[in-house]
Amino acid sequence: MQNNKKIHVALLFGGNSSEHDVSKRSAHNIYDAMDKDKYDVSLFMFTKDGILLGHQASKRIFNGESEDQVVSDEYPKIDMSNPLAPILALEEIRDVDIFYPVIHGNLGEDGTIQGLFKLLNKPYIGSGVLASAASFDKDFTKQILNQAGIRNTQYVVVTPENREEYSWNRIESELGASVFLKPANQGSSVGIHRAEDQKSYEEGLADAFKYDFKILVEKAVEHPQEIEISILGNEKPMASKLGAVRVPDSDEFYDYQNKFVDASGVVFELPVVLPEELTKEITKMALDAYRALGMKGLSRIDFLVDHNGVPYLSEPNTLPGFTNISLYPQMWDVSGINYSDLIDKIIEYGFAEYKRNKQIKYDFQELGTEHVGEKKYN
User: Fold this and answer.
1) Any catalytic annotation for residue 188?
2) Which of 23, 42, 58, 188 is catalytic?
3) Do 229 and 284 share a domain, yes or no?
4) Are residues 115 and 166 in the same domain?
5) pLDDT tens, 78-88?
């Protein structure tokens, strides 16, 4: 910004997804890392019902007051009959310079909030509408990866409409005797199950359908090495060093519990030392995927490496976590970019993408008198 004016950042967090509390933790860490000599930060939390609270109410929750109590205090002040009730708090942030969403999962990473920012004609950090939506939907992600020739796990999509076509016998014959079931539009291991027989398959599907109407059934990578990489940038993205996540042998995969609740049994190796060719291959796959999906600003991309040293791209995360456990900032730290500088760069890329998009021209041509050709009906 000009004239040494502080940049006014609207930090949005919370949301009505299963990652509501994860978002709150991420927002705390990002807020603490922001240089307050550079930024004025206003806080805005989406409740679990999807209602945006103003700065003062959000700050109360941010500072440790009971969320339920604050919500109870604020809801009577909101005219819920107003169709704009969920976003009325935006009236407080007319002078905002840039939006910084830290909303994981539903409505935050699926392109919804990005569409609102675009409608408001304001800069924001991270990927745009299409890239966010495509990267959040695991099915569309895989379709794009396959089109781009980027290796990922074999899968089928099960919906309520084709459910009867995908019996366990068919799944086993096409994908093998060990598969993972994943809701297409959820994050952080929510609704994910491993199935190895008809009973676990049926039970896993029943639970997964609570979270989405489109379920990916993926061929399992047996005893994989879980590798993550952080990407930063717009048209010329750069990649961090690699990190590894090693979960206890008793855990089937890196689930919600050991991601966010109790990571005491998880080992994070930063940076992880892999064979040079494998490191190069994973880095190239990640950068290729970032470009193919049209991502901007930042992303964490996860991989599974099988016992033969073959990497499979697992999934991208367009608004990765910034909790104390999250690897996105940690991988940049070991790559030479500290937390505060990382936040600066993410914000700079947000402004740069906004400026770039403002160069696009739209011509509006008046139609004048309408001339209709002869209609011939047969």
Assistant:
1) yes
2) 188
3) yes
4) no
5) 999 999 999 99
91 is in an annotated binding site: no
Q: 0.85 exceeded by the pTM?
A: yes
369 occurs within a structural domain: no
317 annotated among ligand-binding-site residues: yes
Q: Give yes or no: 326 in active site.
A: yes
Catalytic member of 132, 326, 335, 353: 326
Q: Which of 206, 213, 161, 162 is closest to 185 using CA atoms?
A: 213
* Long-range interactions of 59-62: CB distance < 8 A, separation 24+: 61/24, 62/24, 62/27, 62/28, 62/31
Confidence class for position 255, pLDDT limits 50, 70, 90: very low
The CATH number for 166's domain is 3.30.1490.20
Q: Is 82 annotated as a binding residue?
A: no
Q: Write out pLDDT tens, residues 182-233.
A: 999 986 578 899 999 999 999 999 999 999 999 999 999 988 999 999 999 9
Q: Active-site residue among 19, 67, 74, 109?
A: 19
Q: Is residue 148 part of a domain?
A: no
19 is catalytic: yes
Q: What pLDDT is stored for residue 365 in this prediction?
A: 74
